[in-house]
Every structure is written in structure tokens, then in C-alpha cells.
Design a protein that fits this description.
With 158 residues, this protein is an all-alpha fold. It contains five helices and no strands.
Length: 158
């Protein structure tokens, strides 16, 4: 198959483009949350150190796998997945954290980040559904479910 072979998966090009654009935002949010979660894992301190350190590790490990799935879906739709910090900075709805917050603030920021990913995924869902893109809809459903659960688990520490 040539590099420029057309994509013919039963989804119109304009719909694939619209879905891919939304998935690029989801990828940027997911990668930004991955980076933040990993950063907090390295730097958390305090009486909840052990439980938060382990929880953050579990979450950033899952996020590392998720970015691959999201990027591969973008590629499957026939578009290029973003992969630079500058692109992620432009596309993400999650702000980076440069300072080292207290443990409780880390948890709050990660709750906010997980909820932001849910909102981004939810915003792409109607586009995928309208285009009968069940594969993307399934990916989005899985992401929303996981991030809703992560937000709940994190919130339980507050």
C-alpha cells in the first residue's frame, strides 16, 4: 500500500477530518495529563506519599498506553497525530504545572485534569456518532469511563 493510498472505511473525508481534529485535542489533553501525573508521582511528599505515589504511577502508566491508542486511531482515520510539546500546548485544555504543589493540591489538579479529558472526549462523541464511527465512539467511551473513575478515586483522597 502506498504512502498516499486513500482511506475508504465508510466514513466521509470531512467527517474523518472533524473526528481526527477532536482526537488530536484528546491526545494533547491525555499527554499533558500523563506528564503532569508522572511529574507529581516523582515529587509527591507528605503523609499520603505511599498511596499517592502508587496511585499516580498506576494512572500515568495507563495514560502512556492511552496516548498510543488515540494516536493510532488518528492515523487509522488518515491523519497525522501531533507529537510535539508546542502542538500539545496549543491543543490541550489542561494547563501545565511548573511548581511542585502540596500533595492535596496535586490531587485537586489531577481531578481537574481527568475531568478535562472527559469533557474533551465527550465533545468528540457526537461527531463520531453522527458519522457512524463506532470504533472512535468505543475509544471515547472507554476513555470517558476511565477518567471519570480516576477523578472519583482521586477526589476520594480530599
Amino acid at each position: 500500500m502506498s504512502k498516499n493510498a486513500p482511506v475508504n472505511i465508510g466514513i466521509e473525508e470531512k467527517d474523518r477530518k472533524h473526528i481526527a481534529d477532536g482526537l488530536c485535542r484528546l491526545l494533547a489533553d491525555t499527554y499533558t495529563l500523563y506528564l503532569k501525573t508522572h511529574y507529581f508521582h516523582w515529587n509527591v511528599t507528605g503523609s499520603l506519599f505511599n498511596s499517592l505515589h502508587l496511585m499516580f504511577e498506576q494512572q500515568y502508566t495507563e495514560l502512556a498506553l492511552a496516548v498510543d491508542s488515540i494516536a493510532e486511531r488518528i492515523r487509522t482515520l488518515g491523519y497525522t497525530a501531533p507529537g510535539s510539546y508546542s502542538e500539545y500546548g496549543e491543543l490541550s485544555s489542561i494547563e501545565e504545572t511548573r511548581e511542585v504543589p502540596k500533595a492535596e493540591d496535586m490531587v485537586r489538579l489531577l481531578v481537574e485534569g481527568n475531568e478535562a479529558v472527559v469533557r474533551t472526549a465527550r465533545s468528540v462523541f457526537p461527531v463520531a456518532e453522527k458519522a457512524s464511527d463506532e470504533s472512535t465512539a468505543d475509544l471515547l467511551t472507554q476513555r470517558m469511563s476511565l477518567h471519570e473513575k480516576n477523578a472519583w478515586m482521586l477526589r476520594s483522597n480530599l
